[in-house]
């Protein structure tokens, strides 16, 4: 009966393929080793969390993919790549996601993700020529806001590491963040998801505010926290909750 209920809930996701691929993210070994975990996954995570309307299926797939990359969970990258593509995330957006997360979670995690994604892209006929090049026309830069941010970083950390200050300006905020194939909202969203998954809530205030400035709603941010509790763990999410609470309160004033 429980499997039938889970399948019915999964059908609400849309296509049969996406429901099947969500089930495919759970290794077959789980049923043999931890039946209770299998049941929590089918009836709770897949049947309730993934179908909650606080966050779209597309955003859930992208946020989960970002968490997997951040945590270096290479064995989960391929099934979540397939799921994200079927949920409406484009190949270009996934390409930009791992490029972006290389700067926020480390080069090793990003390159490991690329290795795991490559067979999925090949199977679906997605070639490098279909993906964003290094040289793209950037989005407009908010020069005043960027100057203020850069001056703050320079004044605070210039004597600690001028290299970090300079790379933050030239490579991140005047380059990476202006790449057009991942919308500013989504770029901010995956950054927040990565910070939560990495257990780095002290970096969230700036990026959650930026995400909400870029269009992420408070309801969506709350939905992302609930979703990531399952994929990053309750302790990391509860470490992030006070930061989110303060951001929400300050923005409502």
Description:
It is built from 14 helices and no strands. The chain has helices at about 1-10, 15-25, 30-35, 35-50, 55-70, 75-85, 90-105, 105-125, 145-155, 160-175, 185-195, 205-215, 220-230, 235-250. It has a domain at about 140-180. α1 packs parallel to α4 and α6 (about 75-85) packs across α8. The radius of gyration is 19 Å and the shape is globular. The chain is mostly helical and about 250 residues long. Helix content is about 75%, strand content about 0%. Mean pLDDT is about 90; it is low at about 1-10.
Helix content: over 70%
User: What structural category arises from helix and sheet content?
Assistant: mainly alpha
Written as H for each helix and E for each strand, in order along the chain, the element string is HHHHHHHHHHHHHH
* CA gyration radius, whole angstroms: 19 Å
Count of helical regions: 14
Low-confidence residue ranges: 1-12
Average pLDDT level: 92
Biggest sheet character? none
What assembly state would you assign to the polypeptide chains in this entry?
single chain
Tertiary shape: globular
Report the β-strand fraction as a percent range: under 5%
The tally of beta strands, per DSSP, is: 0
Distance between the termini: 48 Å
């Amino acid at each position: 009966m429980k499997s039938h209920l889970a399948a019915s809930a999964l059908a609400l996701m849309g296509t049969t393929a996406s429901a099947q691929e969500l089930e495919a993210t759970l290794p077959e070994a789980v049923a043999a080793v931890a039946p209770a975990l299998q049941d929590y996954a089918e009836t709770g995570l897949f049947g309730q969390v993934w179908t909650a309307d606080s966050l779209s299926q597309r955003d859930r797939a992208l946020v989960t993919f970002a968490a997997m990359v951040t945590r270096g969970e290479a064995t989960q990258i391929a099934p979540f790549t397939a799921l994200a593509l079927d949920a409406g995330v484009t190949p270009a957006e996934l390409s930009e996601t791992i490029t972006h997360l290389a700067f926020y979670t480390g080069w090793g995690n990003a390159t490991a993700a690329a290795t795991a994604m490559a067979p999925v892209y090949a199977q679906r006929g997605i070639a490098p020529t279909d993906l964003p090049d290094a040289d793209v026309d950037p989005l407009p830069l908010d020069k005043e806001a960027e100057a203020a941010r850069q001056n703050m970083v320079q004044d605070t950390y210039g004597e600690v590491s001028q290299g970090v200050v300079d790379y933050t300006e030239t490579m991140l905020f005047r380059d990476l963040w202006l790449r057009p194939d991942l919308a500013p909202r989504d770029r901010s969203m995956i950054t927040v998801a990565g910070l939560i998954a990495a257990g780095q809530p002290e970096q969230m205030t700036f990026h959650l505010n930026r995400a909400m400035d870029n269009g992420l709603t408070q309801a969506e941010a709350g939905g992302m926290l609930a979703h990531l509790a399952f994929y990053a763990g309750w302790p990391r999410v509860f470490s992030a909750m006070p930061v989110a609470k303060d951001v929400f309160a300050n923005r409502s004033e």
